[in-house]
């Protein structure tokens, strides 16, 4: 089975090898990376991996700011996508955690009945008080998340989607594929959640804005979860924020994104079943001296960027604000305030 992962990256150098090694363990056979404007050696590391046949690496073709959608559009002209049995569109901070069989994508496909698409629900993993960036697997460092069936007071949670080659595709989206609205009812694809159940109809047909990329997560993770490490360490979050906004002086910082993903109410260690094999796979990749050196260079540049940011008053203030932020999402804080419970339980 050929399974191709398609992803866009910018300054993800320290995290690339883990993500590639992990996805190879779960059955991904091919990788198509698009990079843009990297300053931490991400592109150099990808080029070296591409020279060894481990990944395919291209510059992002986007001319505006819609980097991901332009890359996904471009991906459809490459053999690594058109000749794949399945396509997996995901980011480097997202790890598909499979609970059935031998914990691989083929086992998930089999458990779901071999549909034409499988949408797997996110589980957002909190920072958990980890401040310092460490060069070790992300999946070993962050173990707490929101309660799986509700996030930010909403039972509907975003998904990402595995897509089979015969899906009646109009275009790939970042969270799900889309088919033509004119498609006949008898031509609509077989499409399941991560428990092998048919996805809700309103999600299937993208009937409303709320159902374009999420649906209720209760019961949807029986066979798989998509672990999303959107925050990582506080150090790395500051660097990530800089990547997306390089002109922050004299501007207020909104901590909503951090708070919405920093709910640590639930411990989940299930993905650590992969750790022994992952450590072996990482060791194999780093046994190549050039790959190891390029990885270490990315680690160095990541830390240097953190240090440069913390020399700026605005980023020092940002760090202090994030340290002090409540660990409940704003939506849950608002609910507790409405119930008159915030002072007694809201900061627990």
Brief descriptors of the model:
348 residues; alpha/beta; 10-stranded mixed beta sheet; 14 helices; 35% helix
Can I get a quick summary?
With 348 residues, the chain is α/β, with parallel strands linked by helices. Helices cover 35% and strands 18% of the residues. The radius of gyration is 20 Å and the shape is globular.
How would you summarize the topology of this molecule?
Layout: E1 3-9, H1 16-25, E2 30-35, H2 42-51, E3 56-59, H3 67-75, H4 79-82, E4 86-89, E5 94-98, H5 105-111, E6 117-124, H6 138-141, E7 144-145, E8 156-164, E9 171-172, E10 177-178, E11 191-193, H7 201-204, E12 214-216, E13 224-228, H8 234-244, H9 256-260, E14 266-267, H10 275-286, H11 289-309, H12 313-324, H13 330-338, H14 342-346
Parallel strand pairs: 1-2, 1-4, 2-3, 6-11, 6-13
Antiparallel strand pairs: 4-8, 5-13, 6-8, 7-14, 8-12, 9-10
């Amino acid at each position: 089975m050929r399974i191709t992962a398609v992803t866009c990256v910018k300054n993800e150098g320290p995290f690339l090898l883990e993500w590639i090694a992990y996805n190879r363990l779960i059955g991904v056979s091919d990788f198509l990376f698009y990079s843009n404007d990297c300053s931490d050696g991400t592109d150099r590391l990808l080029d070296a991996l591409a020279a060894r046949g481990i990944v395919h690496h291209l510059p992002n073709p986007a001319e505006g700011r819609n980097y991901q959608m332009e890359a996904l559009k471009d991906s459809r002209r490459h053999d690594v996508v058109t000749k794949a049995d399945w396509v997996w569109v995901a980011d480097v901070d997202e790890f598909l955690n499979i609970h059935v069989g031998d914990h691989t994508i083929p086992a998930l496909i089999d458990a779901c009945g071999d549909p034409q698409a499988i949408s797997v629900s996110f589980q957002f993993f909190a920072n958990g008080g980890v401040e310092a960036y460490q060069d070790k697997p992300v999946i070993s460092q962050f173990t707490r998340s929101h309660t799986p069936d509700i996030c930010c007071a909403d039972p509907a949670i975003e998904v990402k989607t595995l897509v089979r080659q015969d899906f009646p595709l109009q275009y790939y989206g970042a969270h799900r594929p889309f088919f033509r609205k004119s498609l006949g009812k008898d031509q609509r694809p077989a499409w399941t959640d991560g428990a092998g159940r048919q996805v809700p109809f309103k999600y299937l047909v993208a009937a409303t804005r709320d159902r374009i990329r999420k649906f209720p997560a209760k019961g949807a993770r029986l066979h798989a979860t998509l672990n999303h490490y959107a925050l990582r360490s506080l150090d790395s979050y500051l660097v990530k924020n800089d990547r997306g906004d390089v002109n922050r002086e004299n501007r207020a910082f909104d901590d909503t994104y951090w708070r919405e993903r920093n709910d640590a109410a639930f411990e989940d260690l299930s993905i650590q079943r992969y750790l022994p094999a992952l450590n072996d796979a990482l060791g194999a990749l780093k046994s190549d001296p050039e790959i190891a050196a390029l990885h270490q260079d990315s680690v160095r540049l990541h830390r240097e960027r953190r240090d440069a940011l913390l020399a700026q008053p605005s980023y020092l203030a940002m760090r202090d604000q994030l340290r002090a932020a409540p660990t409940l999402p704003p939506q849950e804080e608002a609910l507790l305030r409405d119930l008159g419970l915030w002072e007694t339980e809201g900061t627990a």
